[in-house]
Write a structure and sequence with these properties.
metal ion binding; 3 domains; single chain; globular; Rossmann fold; EC 6.3.2.4; D-amino Acid Aminotransferase, Chain A, domain 1; 5-stranded antiparallel sheet; 11 helices; alpha+beta; Dna Ligase, domain 1; 4-stranded antiparallel sheet; D-alanine-D-alanine ligase activity
């Protein structure tokens, strides 16, 4: 029987609010649809919560193993927003791409992720969670302040590097009016790097990293914006540093129990890498998303990437215990 891929997504356009910066463009979704169809799958694009929930719940239970949902839903505000699709699919016994709901929820919280991974020896900068204007930083200046539960550099600009306590309220108060919690961390002055890990638990593959270069000293929302994408990747990472990042990233994937794919960002300080964050729902644009660009640098095609991620999703469904309850209930 022919398998069907559902591209579950939030669609970005220039009229959407700032908080929708992580949503995928129509061009990306169309490119993914074309690629998946050429791989021999049927494809459906769903972008409304009611529609997604209705279609998934109406797939006959004995046919659900032949469907897979590609999780591109980002939402906004909720700390569970990247876990909507994984939780629903697991509950209904439908395969999906990417990590489980628990991994998605943890990694969206930068502070909790750093605490967890630091306890296992992963190097991260000292950090502090900021929830209200009365929270005063206890870590030394200069420090960097950013939203704790956002991606795509939302809420980040040159002003987020704070040199002294006198500038604290000027930066923190406006951000706290938009974001429920902020992360303050020791400012790291070196270059930024990004790396991807593909695979399911027990069988991970780290894709060689790249430096992320951008104008100015901060990877801001203007750099990351889909309208003005001006970052560039430098794949000339020294061998020892590349090996170190791959080793850390494989360990992080195992500790988190990630599935399918994750992208990790690091930054250097005195030539030593420190983990910035883990992205369990990375972008998949063949034009501007870093994970496909990292994959492409290894000599493989975008089509091979998409096919590999789908195969990993079906593999996870067939073997991971987290689907067992729903499978038993559907008998």
């Amino acid at each position: 029987m022919k398998r069907t891929v559902i591209l579950a997504c939030d669609l970005y356009d220039e009229k959407t609010p700032e908080l929708c910066q992580e949503w995928e463009s129509e061009v990306t979704i169309q490119s993914m649809e074309d690629t998946v169809q050429k791989l021999g799958y049927d494809v459906a694009i769903l972008s409304h919560p009611t529609e997604i929930a209705s279609v998934l719940s109406n797939i006959p239970p004995n046919d659900r193993k032949n469907w897979i949902v590609w999780n591109l839903v980002e939402g906004y505000h909720s700390p569970n927003r990247e876990a909507y699709i994984p939780a629903l699919c697991e509950y209904l016994a439908i395969p999906h791409t990417g990590s489980s709901a628990s991994v998605q929820t943890l990694t969206l919280d930068k502070y909790k992720t750093k605490l967890f991974l630091k306890s296992f020896g992963i190097p991260t900068a000292d950090s502090q969670l900021i929830r209200n204007p009365n929270d005063i930083p206890k870590i030394p200046f200069p420090l960097f302040l950013k939203p704790n539960g956002e991606g795509s550099s939302l809420g980040i600009g040159e002003k987020n590097r704070i040199e002294k306590i006198e500038d604290w309220d000027v930066v923190s108060s406006p951000l706290l009016k938009i974001y429920p919690s902020l992360l303050a961390e020791t400012y790291l002055s070196g270059r930024e790097l990004t790396i991807a890990v593909l695979g399911n638990q027990g069988n991970y593959q780290a894709i060689p990293p790249a430096f992320v270069d951008y104008p100015g000293s901060v990877y801001s929302d203007l750099v990351k914006s889909k309208e003005s994408f001006v970052e560039s990747l430098d794949f000339q990472v020294p061998g020892e540093l590349s090996d170190s990042l791959q080793s850390y990233s494989l360990k992080i994937a195992e500790l988190l129990g990630s599935s399918g794919y994750i992208r990790l960002d690091f930054k250097l300080e005195k030539e030593q890498p420190y983990l910035l964050e883990v992205n369990a729902t990375p972008g998949f644009s063949s034009i501007y998303s870093t994970l496909p660009l990292l994959w492409g640098n290894s000599g493989k095609t975008y089509s091979e990437l998409i096919n590999h991620c789908l195969e990993l999703g079906f593999e996870e469904y067939n073997h991971h215990f987290r689907y067992q309850y729903a499978k038993d209930r559907n008998l």
